[in-house]
């Protein structure tokens, strides 16, 4: 379904199976014009490039244009309310019916955000809208800013004003996250540490309806909510969490699609902390003035074959009250929409920012786990070698990046490094690995167990040993991983420990073993390996969390020429992790 890895790494990896029907639900409800329509789930969103009215009037605001063109997408992302599609992907597809259908079918788009900017004398009007996948207005918010203020303000001030406008509009939605599945007394919720959800957090679950709809353009004016129950969060991941139902309004009241309001989420928290900048008096005085709406996104009809193409121009603005939503013209053909007056790349004079290598390697929303420790090993073949206790007590270091693909599937990749002395020489080695795990959230199948998972782990490992007759090995292998995860309260260490236990079983071996300067092919092998570890305390939203682990491995390799090798290791590791 997903067309490219670039889309996957654009933040759209976190999908819930229960959200797969979101688009059908949204489409069915989109055309409703009566009251008490169920509020649809809006999960994946795309940002349409900024549209500027009357190109000639912005020459003195080229710096401001560059800031707004670049920062609109970041303003939407900072609300933490949507999983964002790639800006380049949306830019290439949003203009036509066929393109929008592709965004819906292949990328599960459920909402657009756009901004129109127009000039009215010495004032600049910014209008941001939440749009349906067919470009119908759902929410709208405007800000009237003196041109002189925009000229005098620096990048941070303009960006802050932009964030306030966008988040003020998004905050009109009564829900910040949705229940994605219900299993007995447990629910999964489409928000996690990125939305400041914490273990122990208590939330009312509500069903939200659209109470009042604008008669002209169908935009949402007001909402009603009905409480269906309450939950307490018991486990949190970066973009999802698990809650336990603590009360119900009536039997089976809590259902997928119900939602929660998160006062600590970035967008709401910003206003709760009073960070909204003070507006200039001259701008405040215009709050109640009659102003024309900013240009709407309008798709012109396809030109007649006999006529010459005519450039699309915005319709004349009709004065309306500043808080009334502007009408959007429904899409009726596959003709391309009127493009923005100034494309982002032309307005800014530079290509839209792209992720650098660090952002790709350590994507936001993932979890990094690092470790440092002591690993003692020995190899026994026709020759033998063993690690020597290092002076500084550690000889291994490594890190992994974990990222959720869905509520039940995650993947990881990482690198382990080892180095140190042997009895007669030294060694250095690496293990590059990548894997995926499927989780079954089964509570209390064992005391304190919350999660059981299975997965595959692929590794490429190489160890070079000098000064010994056993010269090391190069190995590629695939292992089955079976693990469990839960919480314990030992008391003598701390109030709570999050623990994980894993067993590894080899499925495939390939490689060579160097013995007395001769490389022998590894024909087969067997391994018994496990890891038991944990972290102290509840997982924090920010900062590092620390713990420890114990590793054990015993392997036997069958080599060419009827030779065999035995390998064994034990390790004590100091663990650390944090959300990125």
Task: Describe the protein.
This protein is an alpha+beta fold and about 575 residues long. Among the domains are: about 175-270, Thrombin, subunit H, CATH 2.40.10.410; about 365-580, Lipocalin (Beta Barrel). Helices cover about 15% and strands about 45% of the residues. It contains eleven helices and 26 strands. The chain has a ten-stranded antiparallel barrel. Helix 3 packs across helix 7 and helix 7 (about 155-170) packs across helix 8. The protein is elongated.
Kindly identify the CATH topology of one domain: Lipocalin
Task: State the helix count.
Answer: 11
What's the rounded overall pLDDT mean?
76
Helical fraction equals: 10-25%
Large-scale geometry: elongated
Write out the strand line-up for the largest beta sheet, numbering strands in chain order.
16-18-19-20-21-22-23-24-25-26
Parts with pLDDT < 50 across at least 5 consecutive residues: 1-35, 273-296, 298-355
**Second-tier CATH architecture of one domain:** Beta Barrel
Total number of strands: 26
Q: What is the radius of gyration? A: 29 Å
Characterize the largest beta sheet: strand count, sense, and whether it forms a barrel.
10 strands, antiparallel, barrel
Quote the distance from N terminus to C terminus: 27 Å
């Amino acid at each position: 379904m997903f067309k490219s890895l670039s889309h996957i790494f654009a933040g759209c990896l976190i999908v819930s199976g229960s959200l797969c029907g979101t688009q059908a639900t949204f489409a069915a409800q989109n055309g409703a014009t009566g009251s008490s329509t169920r509020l649809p789930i809006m999960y994946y969103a795309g940002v349409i490039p900024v549209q500027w009215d009357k190109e000639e009037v912005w020459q003195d605001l080229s710096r401001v244009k560059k800031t707004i063109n670049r920062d609109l997408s970041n303003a939407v992302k900072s609300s933490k309310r949507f999983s964002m599609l790639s800006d380049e992907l949306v830019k290439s597809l949003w203009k036509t019916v066929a393109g929008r259908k592709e965004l819906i079918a292949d990328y599960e788009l459920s909402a657009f955000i756009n901004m129109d900017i127009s000039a009215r004398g010495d004032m600049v009007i910014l209008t941001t809208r939440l749009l349906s996948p067919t470009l119908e207005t759902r929410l709208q918010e405007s800000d009237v800013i003196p041109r002189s203020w925009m000229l005098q303000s620096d990048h941070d001030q303009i960006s802050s004003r932009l964030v306030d406008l966008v988040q003020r509009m998004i905050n009109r939605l009564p829900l910040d996250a949705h229940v994605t599945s219900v299993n007995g007394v447990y629910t999964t919720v489409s928000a996690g540490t990125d939305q400041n959800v914490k273990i122990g957090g208590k939330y009312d679950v509500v069903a939200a309806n659209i109470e009042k709809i604008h008669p002209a353009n169908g935009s949402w004016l007001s909402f009603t909510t009905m409480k269906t129950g309450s939950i307490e969060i018991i486990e949190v991941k970066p973009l999802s969490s698990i809650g336990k139902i603590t009360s119900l309004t009536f039997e089976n009241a809590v259902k997928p699609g119900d939602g929660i309001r998160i006062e600590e989420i970035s967008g709401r928290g910003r206003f709760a902390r009073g960070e909204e900048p003070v507006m200039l008096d001259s701008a405040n005085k215009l709050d109640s003035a009659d102003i024309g709406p900013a240009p709407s996104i309008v798709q012109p009809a396809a030109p007649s074959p006999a006529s010459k193409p005519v450039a699309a121009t915005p319709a004349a603005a009709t004065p309306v009250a500043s808080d009334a939503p502007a009408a959007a013209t429904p899409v009726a053909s596959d003709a391309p929409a009127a493009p923005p007056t100034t494309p982002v790349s032309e307005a800014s004079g530079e290509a839209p920012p792209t992720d650098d290598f660090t952002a790709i390697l350590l994507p936001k929303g993932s979890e990094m786990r690092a470790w440092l420790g002591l690993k003692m090993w020995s190899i026994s073949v026709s020759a033998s070698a063993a690690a020597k206790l290092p002076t500084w007590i550690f000889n291994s270091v490594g890190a992994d990046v974990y990222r959720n693909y869905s509520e039940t599937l995650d993947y990881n990749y990482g690198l382990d490094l080892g180095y140190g002395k042997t009895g007669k020489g030294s060694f250095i080695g690496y293990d590059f690995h990548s894997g995926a795990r499927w989780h079954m959230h089964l509570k209390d199948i064992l005391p304190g167990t919350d999660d059981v998972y299975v997965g595959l782990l692929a590794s490429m490992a190489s160890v070079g040993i000098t000064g010994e007759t056993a010269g090391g090995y190069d190995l590629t292998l695939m292992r089955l991983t079976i693990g469990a995860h839960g919480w314990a309260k030992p008391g003598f260490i701390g109030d709570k420990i999050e623990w994980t236990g894993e067993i590894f079983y080899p499925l495939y071996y390939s490689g060579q073993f160097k013995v007395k300067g001769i490389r022998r092919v590894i024909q087969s092998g067997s391994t018994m390996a496990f890891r038991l570890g944990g972290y102290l305390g509840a997982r924090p939203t920010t900062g590092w969390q620390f713990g420890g682990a114990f590793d054990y491995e015993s392997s036997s390799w069958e080599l060419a020429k009827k030779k065999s090798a035995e390998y064994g290791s034990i390790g004590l590791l100091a663990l650390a992790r944090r959300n990125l």
